[in-house]
Amino acid sequence: MQVSQLEALFAACRTSEADLRRSLDKYTVFFQKIPALIAVTHFHDGLFVDVNEVFCHETGYTREEVIGRTVFEMNFYPDRYKRKELINILLQNGFVDNMEMTFRIKSGEDRIVKITARSLLIDNKEHLLAIIDDVNDQISRSAELHRAIEEAEAASRMKSEFVANMSHEIRTPMNGIIGLTTLLLRTELTEKQREYGLAVQSSARSLMKIVNNVLDFSKIEAGRMDLEIFPFDLKKTCEEIVNFLSFQAEIKNIEINLITPEDMVRHVSGDEHKLKQILMNIIGNAVKFTSEGSVSVNLKPVSVSGEDMVVCFSVTDTGTGIPEEKKDNIFDAFSQGDSSTTRRYGGTGLGLTITKQLVELMGGTIECESVEGVGSTFRFTIPLRIDAQSHQSQSGKGVDDNIRSLGCAVQGDNFTGIDGKAMNILVAEDDAINSRVIIEILEQAGFRVHAVGTGRQAMAAWQHVAFDLIIMDVQMPEMNGLEATEAIRAKEKSRTCKQPPIPVIALTAHANAEDRRRCMAAGMDAYLTKPVVVNELLCNIRTLTKTPHDGPLRKADATEECKKVSLSRNEFFDREALLRRVGGKETLVSELIGHFLKDLPMQIEEISRAMTDGDFSLLGSHAHRLKGAAATICANQAAALADQIQLAAKEENLLKTDSLLKELREHYAYLNANIKEGGNR
Predict the structure, then answer these.
(1) With 0-12 CB in 10 A as exposed, 13-18 as middle and 19+ as buried, what is 376?
(2) d(Cα 650, Cα 652) in Å, to the nearest integer?
(3) Rounded to the nearest 5°, which phi and psi values hold at 107?
(4) Alpha-carbon distance 235 to 240, whole Å?
(5) Running along the chain, 681 residues long, what does each successive block of 10 average in pLDDT?
(6) Which of 120, 27, 105, 113 has its CA nearest to residue 65?
(7) Closest Cα partner for 477 from 300, 658, 625, 326?
(8) Host H or E run for residue 270
């Protein structure tokens, strides 16, 4: 080999040595500085070959203390079987990913780690490369974060519940102030005293409105606001709000208009109460912030899919508008259009926040367009469910063409028990008019009927007579319908001779989801609201008793009767509807009307006494009873007023109750005179 060739070979060797050293240096830096615990051990005996700086820092050992000793000598694995499990997985798969185990460090502390391992050949000998991830800090941080979230949620709930409770506590003395002021204003006062009294009353009402807003806000924040879905007339609901606010608009000499498409579906299902609250807030704001011009309320369906419909509501005003810099915050809590708003217009800044939350709770969206000094448009969408039966009656042939004589429908059905004998039904209803109407309906259908007036009497009658079914009013003296049903169900369970439970149909003037749940929880089998719809009642009896019949009774008849009744909701009194309800018996109609007119003044006085005493529970109970009786007798306006009084009692609002009671007295005088003249309405 020539000298030149040898020199070239040595040069190549020197270059390779330098490259190797550079590669080794890179490996050493990577191995030592990577932010994880890394160890290289013999595969089987666990002898440490190398560890990195992080390993030493986290375990507390120096490199010299570890190299040349086994994992067992160092007692790194409190559970020796875990390393055997690790080796077995490696032998099967050639790798281990994120295997959780306990790892003991020099201080004796056990740490939870996850090991990722690979088998390697070094100098033809099998080794194990392990990357150890200490998850103790992660677990600790996760636990701390979880605790922090729980504490924040608990604090938020406590805050909302505190605000709700305080708002409720404030309402109680406020109602006392309003009630006493109302009573004071009925006494003989000087002009100045009356002026002071009215000022106190006005201030108290303003404060009550603020408290109610805070209460609603806190309920929504605490997640205690639920939807109650029931059928309602969409156009009528909007008209009620617009009519209510039209008085304020007239005072300011501005117009307020409701615009709806002629072919818009009116009969829908949704939460009517919350929709009214939304409309009241938005339209009320439009009227409040408009000094001249007009307010327009537009309804327009934006999508219809089967029975689902999304309706867009637009409220446009020619008022003050909203400054550009305030638009993004207009729906924030305690936010108002400008700093002068509080002094000029009052309010808490919660109205639009509650409105937005209610819209979103109902599954809709809301937005605002506004130009300062020109006006604003608030636009929101609400998904609703179309009442298919009502929609068909609107778009198809007339309602009257679809309804056959209700008296014929009742008389044509022949309900019999399994033995062919007439079925025996117990009616528990404390109101004489309601009881008489139900008895008449059942007797015309061929049932034998036994009637009682209290829950306790219903319990006693059931124990002594074999009834096929019970119709149970929910609100009764001595023992209410829920308590009576629970007692019957308990007795049935305790009987040695097991018999099928007796079907119980709940009868109530309430119509909300919570009331329905209470009835079902008490053991009732069906739920009907007053006034009683003949075919709906008979369909439920047939379903619950599984009785055959040969008459033309159809499920649709109940819907049709409901439609017929609903057509007369705005009437003062509908004699024809009552006549259909009792199968065309004129004598019975006159008897029921006479009984109602005789009983109504006494019921009005009972409501008045409860209001004077501030007994809201009794007040609501009396109003509930009157509502059921009036609805049964088809005195629809009286029923509506009683319903409003019941709601006012629930709100503990004596001022509103007093106003409604005056209206009820005036209506009684009109109703009495109208019926004496022989009019049907």
Answers:
(1) buried
(2) 5
(3) -70, -10
(4) 9
(5) 49 54 61 78 86 86 89 83 83 83 85 84 81 72 68 66 63 70 78 80 71 67 69 87 78 86 87 87 89 91 88 92 79 54 50 85 90 90 77 39 30 50 86 80 85 88 89 85 91 79 85 74 84 74 66 39 39 72 77 81 84 77 84 82 86 78 81 57 38
(6) 105
(7) 625
(8) strand 267-270
103 and 216 within one domain: no
What is the predicted pLDDT for the residue at 217? 66
Q: What is the largest CA-CA distance in the chain?
A: 143
Final residue of a domain: which of 193, 221, 249? Answer: 221
Residue 343, beta-bridge partner list: none
556 φψ region: left (φ > 0), alpha (ψ -120 to 50), beta (else)? alpha
Quickly count: other Cβ atoms within 10 Å of residue 165's Cβ: 12
**CA–CA dist 310, 304 (Å, integer):** 7
Alpha-carbon gap, residue 285 to 346, rounded angstroms: 11
User: What is the domain-level CATH number for residue 372?
Assistant: 3.30.565.10
Q: Residue type at 619?
A: L
For residue 680, being part of any structural domain is answered with: no
Give me the residue label for tokens 């729980």.
150
Q: Which two tokens stand for residue 74?
A: 């160092």
| Same domain assignment for residues 377 and 476 | no
Using alpha carbons only, give the angle 70, 71, 73 rounded to the nearest 5 degrees: 65
- CATH number for 602: 1.20.120.160
Determine the residue type at 416.
T
Instruction: Quote the number of domains for the chain.
Output: 6
Cα separations in angstroms, 477 against 156, 430, 452: 42, 8, 11
Between helices 654-676 and 586-613, what is the axis angle to 10°?
160
Structure tokens that stand for 268 in this block: 């829908």
DSSP 3-state of 476: coil
- Gap between the Cα atoms of 492 and 474, Å rounded: 20
Domain span including residue 6: 1-29
Cα 510 to Cα 474, 515, 643, distances in angstroms = 9, 7, 9
What is the Cα–Cα distance from 565 to 248, expressed in whole angstroms? 33
Is residue 322 within 8 A of residue 337, CB to CB? The reply is yes
pLDDT of residue 390: 47
Question: Hey, CA dihedral for 332, 337, 338, 344, is it positive or negative?
Answer: negative
Q: In this structure, how many other beta carbons lie within 10 angstroms of the beta carbon of residue 339?
A: 7
The pTM of the full predicted model, rounded to 2 decimals, is 0.38
Asked if residue 535 lies in contact with residue 409, where contact means CB atoms within 8 angstroms, the answer is: yes
Q: What CATH number should be reported for the domain holding residue 51?
A: 3.30.450.20
| Lookup result for tokens 């006693």 | 460
Tokens 């309706």 sit on residue: 311
